[in-house]
Every structure is written in C-alpha cells, then in structure tokens.
Amino acid sequence: MAETYAPRRTAVLLIDPYNDFLSEGGKIWPAVESVAREVGLLDNLRAVVGSARQAGVRVVFVPHRRWEPGDYESWDHPNPTQRSIMVRHSFARDTWGGEFHPDFRPGPGEVVVREHWAQSGFANTDLDMQLEQHGITHVILIGLLANTCVESSGRFAMELGYHVTLVRDATAAFEPEMMHSAHELNGPTFAHAILTTKELLTALREEGPGE
C-alpha cells in the first residue's frame, strides 16, 4: 500500500543540518563523507526539502545543541556523544561549523525548534508542541545521523502517536553497518514507512499542494 501525505498534516523534520556535518571542512564531515557520497545525501536532502516546500509540506528545523564553553562538564553522566562534543566542540555556537549549511536554511515562516541536548529532537524541546499547533500528524525524518538523532527522534515521534517515515538516502552515518541497522533492523520496529527519496518525491507529487 502506497503511503500518502496530506500536505497540511505533514512535516519534514530536517535534523542537524550543520556545516560541521554537511560541508567540506566541517569537523564531522570526514566521518560521514563516504556514506554521504554513496547515497547522494546532499542532492537528496535538497530534493526532499525543495519538493516539500513546493508541495506545501511544512519544513521544521530540528537542531542539536550548539556547543558552548562549559557544556556537559559539570554533568553527572554525559553520554558518549556528549563526551566527544566536549573534546571536538561540534557545532560550536557563533562559528561557521555551528551554522546551517547554506542550502538548508530556514525559509520565511519555517519553524526552528529549540536545540536538543542529546539525540531525540523531541526530548526537552518544543518540537511536539510546534507540530501539534500546526496540525501535523505525519513526520518525515531526514538529516543526521541515521542511527542516532534520526532514529531517536523517530522512535519518540512514534511513541507520541505520529506517523513516522524514514528516508534511506536522505541521511547518513559513520559506517554502512550503521545505515543497515537504522533501516533494516531498527527502523522497521517503529517507522510506518521507510522510503527512498525517489519514492517519497513520487508520493508528495501525487498528493499535490493544499490537499
């Protein structure tokens, strides 16, 4: 059964589209570059975001906490990713790496939710409230990383009652095995649909704007 996406009830959640992740010279780009190039990540992100906007689907920006001096240092138990951020200073505030990639910046009226501290875009943010206030029932998750923030946000969305779609080639991870886990092992336990970019774009075109 083909998935359908009523534009007024659907949102694309663009997770962590920072220069550090997506741009040459970014701190984390070398770790994701191989997988990103293999799946055509940047072109697919552009295609999904552009098609969503054209179809009248809301694009919601879901950013990670931008590192600031002192972050996590006084915490009782920062997780492994947070410990690496303390060393690497990923997405540092007021730096180029902590800016959104130039192709993925909010347009007029698009929501940028509060920054998430860990891996779920819903935990300790206003994402759920923003989606509810805009009448959203279906969320399409794209961005980084497939097996961390994308997966955690998708699981949380399912628990809150949203219809969840993952997009295999509009995300990336450090290793192919991580992509396999995200889409073949873990994704099917919580996602309602796991599509390619091409399949998603077909569904968005068939629904049409304003439906």
Automatic annotation (TrEMBL):
Keywords: Hydrolase. One of its GO terms (molecular function) is hydrolase activity. Residues 10-183 form the Isochorismatase-like domain. This is Cysteine hydrolase. It holds the Pfam family Isochorismatase. InterPro entries: Isochorismatase-like_dom, Isochorismatase-like_hydrls, Isochorismatase-like_sf.
